[in-house]
From TrEMBL:
Membrane topology, from the record: Multi-pass membrane protein
Protein name from the UniProt record: Sodium:proton antiporter
Subcellular location: Cell membrane
Pfam family, one: Na_H_antiporter
Segments passing through the bilayer: 7-25, 37-55, 67-86, 106-132, 153-176, 188-211, 252-270, 290-310, 322-342, 367-393, 405-425, 454-471
Keywords annotated in UniProt: Cell membrane, Membrane, Transmembrane, Transmembrane helix
Keyword Cell membrane tagged: yes
Na+/H+ antiporter NhaC-like C-terminal domain segment(s): 161-467
Domain of life from the UniProt record: Bacteria
Principal cellular location given in the protein's record: membrane
Length: 472
């Protein structure tokens, strides 16, 4: 289809509908329907196109692996809950975690063992903090905000053993080849890390609100509940407390699986990449990070099942709780399927090409980096994907930088910063969707609550890119 403003329409309808309905799914579905009918404008053709985009994007290897990872990991976490791992860990840390400050410290320290993937970190830490919240006067929105601050923004800065590194380096390598630059993509990636200004600034904001100042009432998201809602919550707490009395307290049932998956991820990453690597650290770059994490997860699952069976938990109970845990993320998986399909539809309509063709010619060469960040942030907010934004924007950004003589490393940093903004701020982000599903937060309300600090960080980031463009 010829590239035109029509390619913007599917994304334009998503946010208003999501805001009006206070649900992300209707907006995504409406955008997908509109995009499908724009491609095939007849009654049954649009439906067939919609189904085709859903299926074709679901069966992509990386997307299938993400779905399996989320379902299996959620099932495993539910098993650790059922076998007393999470309760035992909460009992263990509650001796130390008695204040809001210590709870915030726990969130930050937990990045040490969960830095390799944002969703891995979210599905690991969020259930623990959800239980700790009942003992401490912290709003769920603040917990969610701090977990997200220490998820995608942190992972995007780590140069080894993450699900991002291989993908980011491959994008840089492809873009450099297109413009005839023969430098090492990994070394360029390392040099670009200090220029991911958004990650650094939002992490700084997170530290500030964690330890030095309370968030505003709007950001806290505290709402006055009526008496019926309060009674309902009290009844729910009674049920949870009754359940906890029947659950054993075995912290090793959480710590051992997490320890195994971390060690196995590091080992399998090295093992997977060492054949093509020229150094120890290069092996982590060459590894298929997502595939390795899935392998590590299944090894952990098998060993955990053996541990639980040796503790005389019944097979029927294990199977039931594993499936129940995985089913908790079915809504997340459905949202991801719609996001992937919608992104593919918009790309076929010429969304990124239309944006790019309307940029070339009016961007001052000195300000390529800030404009790339602003453009990427706009795209990332509407698609909710750091990976998608990086993939769409990297070839364009590197080409623009090369043709205008701008600093390519700075522009690459702007691409990564913009994708990080979208993954953090967008209500369509799989990180936000997963987090809200676990913490029982309304997606749109939560996204609205973190928009102000996100825009502040984005504004400072734009200024820094402008300053850096003048002096680098």
């Amino acid at each position: 289809m010829e590239n035109s403003w029509v390619s913007l329409l599917p994304f334009i309808v998503v946010i208003p509908i999501a805001v009006l309905t206070k649900q992300v799914l209707p907006g995504l579905f409406a955008g997908l329907i509109l995009g499908s009918y724009l491609i095939q404008p007849d009654l049954f053709g649009g439906i067939m196109t919609l189904i085709s985009y859903l299926i074709n994007n679901l069966v992509k290897p990386n997307n299938i692996r993400i779905i399996i990872f989320l379902y299996v990991f959620a099932g495993l976490i539910n098993l650790t809950r059922m076998t007393g791992g999470i309760k035992g860990f909460v009992d263990l840390v509650s001796r130390k975690v008695k204040t809001k400050r210590s709870a915030m410290l726990l969130i930050w320290l937990s990045t040490i063992g969960t830095f390799n993937n944002p969703n891995f970190r979210i599905v690991t830490v969020a259930p623990i903090m959800k239980l700790l919240k009942r003992r401490l006067p912290i709003s769920t929105q603040k917990i969610g905000f701090m977990i997200e601050v220490t998820s995608n923004p942190v992972v995007a800065l780590v140069p080894v053993a993450t699900a991002f590194v291989g993908y980011m380096v491959s994008l840089i390598g492809t873009a450099l080849q297109q413009v005839g630059i023969n430098e090492s993509p990994y070394s360029i990636f390392i040099k670009s890390i200090p220029f991911n200004f958004f990650s650094l600034i939002i992490i700084g904001i997170g530290i500030y609100y964690s330890f030095f100042r309370e968030m505003s009432n709007h950001m806290q998201g505290d709402m006055v509940e009526d008496s019926d809602a309060q009674r309902e919550e009290e009844e729910l707490q009674k049920c949870i407390q009754a359940y906890e009395k029947e659950t054993p307290s075995k912290p090793l049932n959480l710590l051992l699986p997490l320890g195994i998956i971390l060690v196995m991820t590091l080992y399998l990453s090295w093992r997977n990449g060492q054949a093509q690597a020229i150094s120890f650290f290069d092996a982590f770059v060459k590894a298929d990070a997502l595939g390795v994490m899935l392998e590590a997860l299944f090894v952990t699952l098998f060993l955990s099942l053996l541990l639980f069976l040796l503790q005389r938990f019944s097979v029927a109970k294990i199977v039931t709780h594993f499936i129940d845990g995985g089913n908790e993320l079915v809504s997340v998986i459905l949202m991801l399927a719609l996001v992937w399909a919608l992104s593919a539809v918009s790309e076929d309509l010429g969304f990124s090409t239309y944006i790019a063709s309307n940029l070339i010619g009016w961007i001052p060469e000195t300000f390529i980096a800030p404009v790339v960040f602003i453009l990427g942030s706009f795209i990332a907010y509407f698609i909710g994907s750091s990976w998608g934004t990086w993939g769409l924007l990297m070839p364009l950004a590197v080409t623009l930088a090369h043709q205008t003589g701008s600093n390519i490393i700075l522009v690459i940093g702007a691409v990564f910063a913009s994708g990080t903004f979208g993954a953090f701020a967008s209500p369509l982000s799989d990180n936000s969707i997963t987090l809200c599903a676990i913490l029982d937060l309304p997606v749109m309300e939560y996204a609205h609550s973190k928009l102000k600090p996100s825009l502040i960080a984005a504004g400072i980031t734009t200024i820094l890119f402008g300053i850096a463009s003048l002096f680098i």
